[in-house]
Design goal:
Helix 2 runs antiparallel to helix 4 and helix 11 runs antiparallel to helix 12. 59% of the residues lie in helices and 9% in strands. The radius of gyration is 26 Å and the shape is globular. By secondary structure, it is of the alpha+beta class. It has an eight-stranded antiparallel sheet, covered by helices on one side.
């Protein structure tokens, strides 16, 4: 590679990496914990969730309860399987009927308890797992700013990955095995950044691509919408199979009795190992009422196997059927693979743990890249004013990034002590403590202190998490294990192991400082 190309790639890699470093760290740190979103929600509530991928719900009974509370006549209704499997997500669209009651004219998004049929709003059912999951794509920033920001960060991260590979291509094998901890500081950070960056490269590339796809696909396809679909987004989504067939409303009351449970059972009978993941009802109670039962084949049987059956309720006939074994389309494969590899939910806890470790590894790669940038510019040839500015920038970066560990552990404790904490209180606890701790570290002006304090305080708070859970509920992790409450057991033990590692790392850093 000639010097001109090398300089182009080097500066592209450096600039793109530095500009996005803080937000990218937040995305990877929160995203790493998001692999255990369901477990965190179960641990916080103290209620184990079902391991089944099929919606565990009596649909007929649920519809009776919902009808008395929200008047379902003329509505489009969707039941779907959320991450927290002891509940079912429900979307109620406004009624199409001209004589609909006032409460039927309001759209609703609800969470339904599968056993008690009690409903709650999204805000009322908000939990810590949901907060961390949404933090990893910046959903707390008003829509669509947060979504687009996280998407473009993922896109720039992709640039940083590609340019980094091109920079190290000739020495990609030799540099991977080189680690010189006794050399000067810049060499130490460079070796760590290169070797660990290459180790996590496939993981980081996958998440850069899928993250950009999920968050900014609308921006990417916007020109196509204008040119090919004359600005009609609904037509585009219909062709991408996000929307099904729209059946017209007939304004006639359906007189024939029906059972959604029976349709679900009949659908499951069509294919072995078929899990019901979504039930959609169009024109509830109308003569042209249709029910679509959707699902997927178990991942260990067929990685991409989406199927559905559409019923016309008035006649009982099957309008259409999609066989998940023989009618899997290219579009199904693309959408399913992108989702599955991003969420990492097809390989059990083993894959989740590996993904978590690779996510934390990526956080270290980000920090090491920032430290390389700082050390490389801490030279006598650079004006004192610029060097001080660089130091302030990195100090702010480290304060924001490293403080996430103790802040996250602290929020776990508060969420358990004051359950249900609610969305607003969760925001207050996390963001206010994060802001105050970051300001403290910036004013302290000591990066080593910031690192040591975050590791030690994060470890202490992490050890307190299972203690607080045990005192609050009496469900200590060994009791949870004996009662087959694996999710509660896992989160408690997870924090014990994580805190042990971070505490050990803090002592190693301290002993290294004393030797120097």
């Amino acid at each position: 590679m000639n010097n001109r190309n090398y300089n182009i790639f080097f500066h592209t890699h450096t600039v793109s990496g530095i500009v996005i470093s803080v937000v990218l760290y937040v995305i990877f740190f929160a995203g790493s914990f998001s692999f255990f979103k369901e477990d965190i929600a179960s641990w916080e509530k103290g209620t184990p969730t079902s391991a089944s991928q099929t919606i565990q719900l009596n649909f007929d009974e649920a519809l009776k309860k919902l009808d008395s509370a929200y008047d379902l006549q003329g509505r489009n209704i969707s039941f779907y399987q959320p991450q927290n499997k002891h509940s079912t997500g429900i979307s109620l669209e406004a009624s199409k009927g001209s004589l609909a009651s006032d409460k039927a004219k309001e759209s609703k998004y609800l969470i339904l308890n599968n056993k008690t049929y009690q409903t709650s709003t999204y805000e009322e059912s908000y939990n810590l797992g949901e907060f961390i999951y949404r933090l990893h794509f910046l959903a707390q920033i008003p829509y669509p700013v947060g979504y687009y920001l996280s998407g473009f960060i993922a896109l720039f991260f992709l640039f940083a990955i590609v340019t980094g590979v091109l920079l190290h291509w000739k020495k990609i094998i030799s540099s991977f095995y080189v680690f010189r901890p006794k050399e000067k500081l810049k060499t130490w950070w460079t070796d760590a950044h290169t070797s660990l960056g290459m180790l996590g490269l496939p993981f980081q590339f996958v998440y850069a691509v899928t993250g950009a796809f999920f968050m900014i696909k609308l921006v990417i396809v916007a020109p196509s919408v204008q040119l090919l679909y004359q600005g009609d987004q609904k037509k585009l989504y219909t062709e991408l199979q996000y929307f099904g067939t729209d059946y017209p409303f007939k304004y006639k009351v359906l007189t024939k009795p029906f059972s959604i449970n029976e349709m679900v059972v009949n659908t499951k009978k069509n294919w072995d190992d078929f899990n019901i993941t979504r039930v959609e009802i169009q024109n509830y109670g109308d003569a042209n009422m249709h029910v679509t039962v959707k699902g997927e084949i178990e991942y260990d049987k067929k990685f991409t196997g989406a199927g559905e059956v559409v019923y016309k309720v008035a006649t009982g006939e099957i309008v259409s059927k999609k066989n998940p074994l023989t009618q899997t389309t290219y579009l199904d494969c693309v959408k399913n693979i992108l989702y599955r590899i991003h969420f990492g939910d097809y390989g059990g806890y083993g894959l989740k743990i590996i993904s978590f470790l690779l996510g934390i590894l990526s956080c270290f790669v980000i920090i090491s890249g920032v430290m390389i940038w700082l050390v490389a510019r801490n030279k006598k040839s650079i004006p004192e004013k610029k060097r001080r500015f660089n130091e302030v920038v990195v100090r702010i970066y480290l304060a924001i990034c490293l403080s996430m560990l103790p802040v996250t552990a602290f929020t776990f404790i508060i969420a358990k002590m004051y359950y249900p904490l609610g969305r607003d209180n969760t925001y207050s606890v996390y963001f206010i403590s994060w802001l105050l701790l970051s300001i403290f570290f910036v004013l302290k002006k000591n990066n080593r202190f910031t690192n040591q304090f975050c590791l030690i305080s994060g470890s202490i708070l992490g050890f307190m998490i299972p203690v607080v859970n045990g005192i609050k509920t009496g469900n200590w992790f060994w009791i949870a294990y004996n009662n087959n409450q694996f999710q509660t057991f896992f989160i408690d033990v997870f924090w014990i192991i994580l805190s042990t590692i971070t505490l050990y790392a803090s002592f190693k850093l301290k002993s290294h400082k004393e030797k120097k």
